[in-house]
Amino acid sequence: MEIIIEEISRGHKLLGRHKFAKQSINVGRGYHSDIILSDPHVCAEHLSIEFDGDNWLIADQDSINGCFLDDGNKPANGHIVRSGDVITLGKSQIRVVFPHHPVETSITLSPFENLINLTKHPVALFVNIALFAIITGWMFFLNNPKEVTFTQLFVPSIGLTLMFAIWPASVALISHLTKHDARIFTQLGLCFVFYNLTWFSDFIEALVKFNTSSQFPLTALLALLPISIAFCLFWLNCYVGFHMSSKRRTVVAVCLTTLLFGGSFLIEMSKKPDFSIRPHFNSTLLTPSFMFAKSSSVDEFIENSNELFSEAKKSVKKDD
Amino acid sequence: MKGLISLLLVLVCNISVAVEQAETIFKQHAPSLYQIRLIDKASGEKSSIGSGFQISSDGLIATNYHVISSYARHPEKYRIEFLDNQGKKAHLELKSIDVINDLALVKRDVEQEMPFFTIANSVPTKGEELYSLGNPHDLGMIVVPGTYNGLKKESFNDRIHFTGSVNSGMSGGPVVNKNSDVVGINVATSGNQIGFLVPHDKLLALVKTYKEQNNLTIAQQMEQQLNQNQKKLIGTLLDSNWQLRKLGEGLIPTIDVPFIRCWGESNADKSDALVMLAVANCSLEENTYISGNFFTGALEMEFRYMQAKKLSDVKFYQLFQRQIARVMPGNKAGKDDVTEFQCQHDIVMPENQLINNKAILCTRAYKDFNDLYDVLYLGISIDRDDQAFISHFTLAGVAQNSAQAFTSKFMESVSWK
User: Fold this and answer.
1) How confident is the model at residue B301, as a pLDDT?
2) Cα separations (Å) of A137 from A120, A130, B354?
3) Which of A215, A295, A312 lies nearest to residue B348, judging by beta carbons?
4) pLDDT at B95 exceeding the cut of 60
5) How far is CA A17 from CA A27, A103, A106, in A?
6) Nearest-CB residue to A288 (from B345, B363, B385)
7) Of A243 and B252, which is predicted with more confidence?
8) Could you tell me where the DSSP H helices lie in A31-149?
9) At what angle do helices A246-271 and A224-241 cross, to 10 degrees?
10) CA dist B215 to A61, A217, A314, B79, Å?
């Protein structure tokens, strides 16, 4: 009768797996044990698992700290083992599985996975990072009212690029620390693709804001664009970096997105003064070649302002 | 030499005559002159002072609105007191105001008929000697001789230009001619020897309205006066000739009225500037004081012409966008006075189709005065790659129809050459 014993961490992550074809297996800190645990709370001869012909039974070898079922306080001594049982000894845990234990159905290798792997290709990676650095430098250039030299743009754009590389690097570090594949180049490639998508979505937002009037009802929806980009990025970070169920992955991505946008929203709110004398309006400007909208007449503009005045009047009542 | 001595003699004589005159006027009228003080009820101390003078035997006293403005806005916080030439203090009651001309009528209780100032029924002649009375800086009542210099030309609501020192605290004091008739009321100063007075006819008009119909509350009077004044102002502006003048490659409207004055500036001297800039400002340099930081009735127009010199059009528009995001209103009204600005924007082309603008209109309503708004407009040209033209105005304390009519005319007037 064969038996499989898995060493697992407290978070039920697999640390080692052993298959035995014996009638009795010893677990302990001593080097003569079949499974050697280095946990100092485990005795040299801690417990044994024995086959009596019908069942596997757990026998505590008078250990100091005892052994228990699962994480609970139920003593495991004399327990008849069922496949998948987790036994706690000292601060360690083992899981006992029989050969017929069912496994999850296999996941097909999706073309999606290939697409993700494409981002770590050295050329793609270089192009994406370079594109990001160039756009960043260009933004510095556009927003600087004085004449600037190449070095003056080079330093901040490289600095910012490095700063943005911190996120994929830390995700890779966390997956490495949690015994997952680090896949740092995939993470880097993915992140920079999405950072560049954010530049693109900024442009789309500016284009829409430039071409529409305040009467356009869907301007608020534009905010969804960066939010969905961030959600996709976080989801993929989890997909690449960690083995988790798709439900858990979605929850993590939603939480990170909420933290990012909710946090910046809260910071914005906390800075907002009680009363601002400064008017807030859409000041988006692009060059004339991006103007596609039809112009209104002065009369239409004045006609629309009736609503503006009645809104102002309403807010007097609201403040009272 | 002889001539010089005789000239000096004449001068000395004139001065002594003036001093004598001033002395008699002062002696004669001291009992009808008051220091008006606003007492903060909670602390019991005076929070502001000014001067006032009695204009009827039954105790009606004229002063400036700005002397008692805090009381007019917050009657629960203050009370008004007078201090007469004998050091007697007593309570005053606010009867009527003219916020546009900065006048107020207060009333004291009198036991018997009292002497008072008579108000002149004719306008002084240019160069006529006048005497301004008041209590500057709480130093006691004084007389300041000066000269009548006619009405200030650049002012929408009439003000007398008086050459003489009007100091703070003299506000609300009378200015009399040789016959001791009141021809004006001290109201403002513009530095050394330049003072401004409210003409006597405004006071006569206020007394008349007060006697005819005194059933409106102070707030209602204020609302009515502000409303009438904005109607008169915007009406005058819209009926005036709007001349188109060149600014760079653009055309700007200048309104042909003496009370709107224009100033200009450019960076033509800076050869290394990335953008060539020419600015023209036109404004009504006069506003109505309501209280604290709250001024209204102002009008400002600003035009900027910009041309990119060593810039790509993308960078030009990016810099341009940063500049327009910093627009501020002309007056610093607070939370208690106005709502926050609300804005609308659109792409607008005037009828002549000579320019295509991104137009932004913002407005905020006055909390205490019905149908009065501050309006801010910003027009930004978006049809030329390397040139930009910003047209901007702010109007304070106008009604919706006035604001819309002015905005419409303004938007139709601005264009490329």
Assistant:
1) 93
2) 24, 10, 37
3) A295
4) yes
5) 13, 15, 20
6) B385
7) B252
8) 111-118, 122-143
9) 140
10) 104, 48, 29, 21
Q: Residue A274: what pLDDT?
A: 81
Tell me if A142 and B314 make a contact (CB, 8 A cut-off).
yes
Q: Look up the ipTM and state it.
A: 0.86
Six token digits for residue B87: 């050091």
B273 pLDDT above the threshold of 50: yes
What is residue B71's three-state secondary structure?
A: helix
Say yes or no: A313 contacts chain B, CB-CB below 8 A. yes
What part of A 45-104 touches B (C-beta under 8 Å)?
A: none
> How far is B126 from chain A, CA to nearest CA, in Å?
44
**Contacts A288 to B, Cβ<8 Å:** 313, 382-385
- What pLDDT does B374 receive? 93
| A-B contacts at Cβ under 8 angstroms | 157
- The stretch B378-406 carries a mean pLDDT of 92
Looking at the DSSP bridge assignments, the partners of residue B162 are B148, B195
Give B362→chain A minimum CA distance, Å.
Answer: 7
> Quick check: B300 pLDDT over 80?
yes
**pLDDT given at position B18:** 59
When pLDDT is cut at 50, 70 and 90, the band that residue B15 belongs to is low
Looking at residue B14, its pLDDT comes to: 53
Q: In this complex, do B347 and A211 lie within 8 Å of one another by their Cβ atoms?
A: yes
Q: Can you say how many angstroms the Cα of residue B314 is from the centroid of all Cα atoms in its chain?
A: 43
Helices A298-319 & B400-413 angle (0-180, nearest 10): 150
**What is the nearest CA distance from B47 to chain A, expressed in angstroms?**
26
Report the C-alpha gap between A309 and B371 in whole angstroms: 9
B348–A274: do the CB atoms touch at under 8 Å? no
Overall size of chain A counted in residues? 320
Residue B407: band (very low, low, confident or very high) from pLDDT cuts 50, 70, 90? very high
Separation between Cα atoms, residue B154 and residue B99, nearest integer Å? 19
- Give A137→chain B minimum CA distance, Å: 13
Partner residue facing B411 (CB), from A141, A298, A304? A298
Cβ pair B347:A309 closer than 8 A: no
**CA angle at B263 for the pair A145 and B281, rounded to the nearest 5°:** 60
Q: For chain B, say whether A215 makes contact (Cβ under 8 Å).
A: yes
How many beta carbons lie within 10 A of that of residue A154, not counting itself?
13
Taking CB atoms and an 8 Å limit, are B365 and A316 in contact across chains? yes
Query: Are B314 and A301 within 8 A, CB to CB?
Result: no
CB contact under 8 A, A281 and B345: yes
Nearest to A274 among B335, B342, B367 (CB): B335
| AA identity, residue B261 | R
Sorted by sequence, the CB contacts under 8 Å of residue B90 that are 6+ apart come out as B81, B82, B108, B109
**Number of C-beta neighbours around residue A311 at 10 A:** 14
DSSP letter string over B296-344? E--EEEEEEEEEESS--HHHHHHHHHHHHTT---SS---TTTB---EEE
From the first residue on, what is the mean pLDDT of each consecutive set of 10 residues in chain A (320 residues)?
87 85 91 91 91 89 88 83 89 90 80 85 94 93 83 91 95 90 91 94 92 85 92 93 88 95 92 85 89 91 93 84
